[in-house]
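okkk here we go again. third time trying to get the flavin mononucleotide bound version out, last two times i messed up the smiles copy paste (missing a bracket lol). double checked this time i swear
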Amino acid sequence: MTQLSRRSFMKIAAVGLAGLGGCQGIEMATQQAVAVPPAALLREYELVRLACLAANSHNTQPWLFHLEPGCIVVSPDFSRRCEQVDPENHHLWVSLGCATENILQAAPGMGLDASLTLLDEAVRINLRNYAAARPCALAAAIPHRQSTRCDYDRRPVPAHTLQLLESATRSDSVGISLLTEGPLRRQVEALVLAANARQLDSALFRQELRQWLRFNEHDARTLGDGLFSACTGNPQVPSWLGNRLFDWFYTAQSALEPLARQLHSSSGLILLHGERHDWWQWFETGRSAQRLALWITSLGLKMAFINQPIEVAQTRQQLATALGLGPRTPEILIRFGYASPMPTSFRRPIAAVINV
Ligand SMILES: Cc1cc2nc3c(=O)[nH]c(=O)nc-3n(C[C@H](O)[C@H](O)[C@H](O)COP(=O)(O)O)c2cc1C
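finally!!
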């Protein structure tokens, strides 16, 4: 995935159309009310609402939830897959892992013990009653986590915080590499830019990306999905104009300079890597990525995904070689640091993702 550059939209000013909208007063669409959940499923509905706040590729929200008392089955919605950017459904399964991690973090606070069972291309979350609620610190970060796609303030992150992020993210199957400075970090940043340039040269990639762009609050709110322009710091414009501006001005040339600035402004980069090449690995990576994002949020830091070099096969291989990963595969790349929050992305109503 990529980001719309501020500069491409600033060209609007040149044609006298600047300031058609702002990003003020955007409510948390994520707080949408649920259409009266059945009494026996109140906690399950609330857990699904929290699951939907998770990070997910292109904000397609490619998930479905089947609910029964004491059980939530999470399965993919393949109608929302992104053929171009994610031909193997890697990002789709990572997104499902992110959503599931939110449920696992939130359940103890509702007095529920949650465990996972692997199904055929789905997972079942089994929920058992505890005697008392045991709120988990990370659950409080769920509504505040966001992909913060702006310049950060370059401040270094203390060593003990970095150690905490590393140990909280690692799991049996997911490894983590942390880069805060040095030639290796610069090499990885160069791969992000190279991959992004390659993507923006692809007509099919651009076509798919454009389909998920929401150029104004009305569209973003009505559809409840996609990449809302205000979340990337861009002004809002009518969709007919946004589509034209995207075609005319959103090129590798205009996109790379702001992306390079964002990379350099970050305190560091984190790469998650996996040992296997199957959906269960990708799902586990998603759980680790979401846990990392919740830790980052709860520590007062911000993060954004920069997954471009993993989406392009050639740069993915170069990334693995540069970091000496051997047979392990790069799965998720993020940048982190200190910044002010950006507007919140929208979500679809819970009713759209539940089949009871
Ligand atoms: C697997 C995966 C890959 C992603 N890749 C990118 C990316 O390359 N660039 C980017 O800006 N955001 C990326 N994102 C972030 C999503 O676009 C973001 O989570 C979604 O739009 C919802 O916004 P939120 O995270 O602020 O809730 C990725 C998310 C996931 C789960």
